């Protein structure tokens, strides 16, 4: 018996029909779009261009956008696999040899699909590794993930343009009961995966999210990404906070900071990996602290940590956040003195801010010109 490559007509499952493919593609497109737009928001919050400042309100804005980014990426995984299963028979269609224009069109379509698949699998796989804080590569995740995200978005736009009329035809076709059953399985699978991970950022789902990558455990009831030991923190016996500005400096000991008027605010820690948790933070509002030290207010600050090295040993606190009354130099969390892993002797906590920029083990605040 002579073997031959499979042909599209060899596949008779209702999963391979335009009605199923179009609907899976629509859902996948929504997931990719949400993931891409919230990814842009996350990048803008961490690396804002000169003309933009991430807002401080609502206080959970970054928590919402980043959890939506991660969860939409998680949802895209089963949807992408289902879409591939639905369309893979068409991969065996031989390209037309004549006329040349059709051959070129077919080649361009296949190339856009190849780019889209490679970029999509890279983004989803690297995103999962990032959520698990595992980095089996040498490139910088943030920049590479951001760049490939644009490639995926461009390839998706080309693919939608090529397939728009066919998708419209498929959506107009009413699926029969067998096709509806396949679509329900895809929906249930996607919902189960999201439910199994959403507890990382939705507290009331934490008990049912068996695959959540962060638990509410940890020192003082909060998870920790980077411990004091991992960061190489050594707090000097006579630690003091330095506040510097053009034309002046001031130093305050921990006792002097504790003697200033304190404020308690309930604010979330929201990390780029998608997990978040709220806590009651007590400390001195940054604006009040600068006023007490005689430093100018209404300007951006450079925040320096005791951490001897690391990408986030320093951070920039924009003027809008520095002026916000809820932005604190925190000394306590949930009624307790900060543990070393949460930033003792003091840390920044600000509303609607990525966790990597909520600098711990603060030793210096520099008011920028």
From TrEMBL:
Gene3D superfamilies: Oxidoreductase, molybdopterin-binding domain
Highest taxon listed in the record's lineage: Bacteria
Stretches assigned to the Oxidoreductase molybdopterin-binding domain: 236-368
Record keyword Transmembrane helix present: yes
InterPro entries documented for this protein: Di-haem_cyt_TM (IPR016174), Mopterin_OxRdtase_euk (IPR008335), OxRdtase_Mopterin-bd_dom (IPR000572), OxRdtase_Mopterin-bd_sf (IPR036374)
Keyword vocabulary terms for this entry: Membrane, Transmembrane, Transmembrane helix
Transmembrane segments: 20-41, 61-82, 111-132, 144-164, 185-205
The keyword Lyase belongs to this UniProt entry's keyword annotation: no
Name of the molecule in the record: Molybdopterin-binding protein
Organism: Phytohabitans aurantiacus
């Amino acid at each position: 018996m002579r073997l031959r490559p499979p042909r599209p007509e060899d596949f008779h499952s209702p999963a391979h029909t335009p009605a199923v493919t179009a609907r899976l593609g629509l859902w996948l497109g929504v997931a990719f779009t949400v993931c891409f737009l919230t990814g842009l928001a996350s990048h803008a919050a961490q690396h804002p261009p000169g003309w933009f400042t991430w807002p401080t309100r609502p206080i959970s804005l970054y928590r919402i956008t980043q959890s939506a980014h991660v969860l939409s990426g998680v949802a895209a995984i089963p949807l992408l696999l289902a879409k591939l299963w639905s369309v893979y028979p068409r991969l065996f269609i031989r390209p037309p040899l004549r006329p040349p224009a059709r051959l070129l069109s077919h080649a361009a379509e296949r190339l856009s699909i190849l780019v889209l698949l490679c970029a999509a699998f890279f983004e989803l796989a690297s995103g999962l590794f990032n959520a698990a804080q595992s980095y089996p590569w040498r490139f910088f995740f943030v920049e590479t993930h951001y760049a490939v995200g644009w490639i995926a978005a461009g390839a998706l736009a080309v693919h939608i343009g090529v397939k728009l009329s066919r998708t419209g035809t498929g959506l107009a076709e009413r699926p029969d009961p067998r096709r509806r059953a396949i679509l329900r399985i895809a929906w249930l699978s996607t919902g189960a995966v999201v439910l199994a991970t959403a507890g990382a950022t939705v507290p009331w789902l934490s008990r049912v999210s068996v695959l959540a990558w962060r638990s509410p455990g940890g020192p003082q009831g909060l998870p920790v990404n980077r411990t004091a030991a991992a960061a190489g923190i050594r707090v000097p016996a006579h630690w003091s906070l330095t506040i510097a500005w053009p034309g002046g400096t001031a130093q305050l000991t921990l006792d002097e900071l504790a003697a200033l008027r304190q404020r308690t605010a309930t604010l979330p820690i929201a990390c780029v990996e998608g997990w978040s948790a709220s806590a009651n933070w007590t400390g001195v509002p940054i604006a009040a602290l600068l006023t007490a030290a005689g430093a100018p207010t209404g300007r951006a600050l450079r925040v320096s940590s005791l951490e001897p090295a690391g990408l986030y040993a320093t951070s920039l606190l924009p003027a809008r956040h520095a002026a916000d009354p809820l932005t604190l130099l925190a000394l306590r969390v949930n009624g307790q003195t900060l543990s070393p892993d949460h930033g003792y002797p003091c840390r920044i906590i600000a509303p609607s801010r990525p966790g990597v920029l909520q600098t711990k083990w603060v030793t210096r605040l520099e008011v920028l010109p």
